[in-house]
Design goal:
Layout (H helix, E strand, L loop, with lengths): L1 E3 L2 H12 L8 H30 L6 E5 L3 H15 L4 E6 L8 H12 L6 E4 L16 E5 L11 H13 L2 E5 L23 E4 L13 H4 L1 E4 L14 E3 L2 H7 L14 E5 L6 H12 L5 E6 L4 H7 L4 E4 L17 E4 L7 H16 L5 E2 L2 H8 L12 E2 L3 H8 L5 H15 L2 E4 L5 E3 L5 E3 L12 H13 L5 H23 L6 H6 L1 H9 L4
Parallel strand pairs: 2-3, 2-5, 3-4, 5-6, 6-7, 7-8, 9-18, 10-11, 10-13, 11-12, 13-14, 14-15, 15-16
Antiparallel strand pairs: 1-9, 16-17, 17-18
Length: 526
Amino acid sequence: MKNVYTPAEIERILEATLGPSTPPADAGELRVWSRRRADFISLVGSQAAAEVLAMRGDTDSPVLVFAGDDICGAYALATAIELHQFGCRARVCLFNIGGDMLSIDTRLRRDELRAQGYGDWLDEVVNPGPNFVMPEMGPSTIVVDGLFGTDYQKPLRGGYQAVARHINEAAPRVISIDIPSGMTLDLSVGMINRNIIHADLTLAIVGPTLAFFMPENAQLIGRWKTLKLPLDKSVVKRPSCRIVDSKAIRTALPVRDPIADKNELGSALIFAGSYGMLGAAVLATRAASRSGCGRVTCHGPRCAFYVMQTSVPSAMFETDGADFDIQRFESQHDADATAIGPGLGRSDATIYGLERLLKSSYAASRPLILDADALNCIALRQTLLDFIPPRSILTPHAREFDRLFGTQNSHSTRVMKAVEMAARYKIIIVLKGHYTLTIWPNGEILVNSSGTEALATAGSGDVLTGLVTGLAAQNMAPEIAAVAAVYIHGIAGKIASRRYGVRGTTAEDIADAIGQAIESITNPQS
């Protein structure tokens, strides 16, 4: 799995790689320090220039480079030097307010640009004043944003804010080095997007931070990639956030014994369905049946009998005898994993029955999978939060999360709240979205990389619930089952969309593609 770094971790890695920003006094150490930084900056410049040339293609699109006074400006100037060497005449706008603001790195790159004969393409802004005129640009222009990087974690002000707004209004194609200028990397609120440069492509120096995966930052980051650079990452032992990939899931999935019978492959129990919402029960049960577990039982109201027996004949069905909703959460089956929620409804009788199940499961320390109306029922009776068994898996989307834990102003604050709640209640929270985040009680965050817009369809969450339950029934630890289910769910969505198209994919299609998704992960060469 690839690492996702905090701003503090990025700072430590860069300092370990480049040395301190202040040059050493010793002449010998200064030469080593200067050479190391110069080589690194040149490497960033060559890779950034390659991205500019790839975006430019065979066109004659003008290229405009904005450089700040610190190391991000040095990266931008190194990019401009490389572009000129390839015959791409890039206009450079270097901000050196007052004439003496440039760092050593940036000053050296500026002097190199001039020494190589490209000084006519350099506009050094020393005293902008009221007569300063922004370079012309339009949709065909490629802008290299090297004003400010991770070293400047404050909102843009004054003239820099005006520059960002002008670039955004002109709508050129933008490549930001490090991060878009004006963006902060902490999970915070209050950023005004029009005051931040909007990138089409962000070139991360060390790697992504969690801010890269927040939906409110999508129009700022655009696509992103991490440059291939020689970094000293030994100073960061184990980041608390990682990106899940197929290799990690392949390692985590249980090995299926070819001679095992169904009784050895685990049993899943799903409490789901109420009058008018039986489809959710069908989808969750169907997904669990496709997960590889040996036996699946759906417990629902009497009105679900014929629906379940005809829609998912491979699963068993049981009822507590109530006609329209579940009132007693009791089963004759001793399941290996139990889920509650899809299509459950929120009647008083259902909430009372759920309360009894939560308290008995809490006393027995038996984790549960809680989704949809199970979460909404708990939100209506907040004291039930204290009886969620440790290591239970909750799978809320944003609105369900806010009902349960309080309204959040952004996804960033929602994530911070989820980390807090997972630790407080010792639970696993699967915060659903394009980049679904699985948050463990110890504060670790797993970012899913298999998301697809095809999953944005009614019932997709019910499929995920059934899949989590089916995997957990196969003796997978709850923390691992949650992460694996989210990843497989995304792959199933991609497989289904290849057959039916993104817009035509339904939750039934996703459920039916689960087997193929698991096979593609466990046997990638087949």
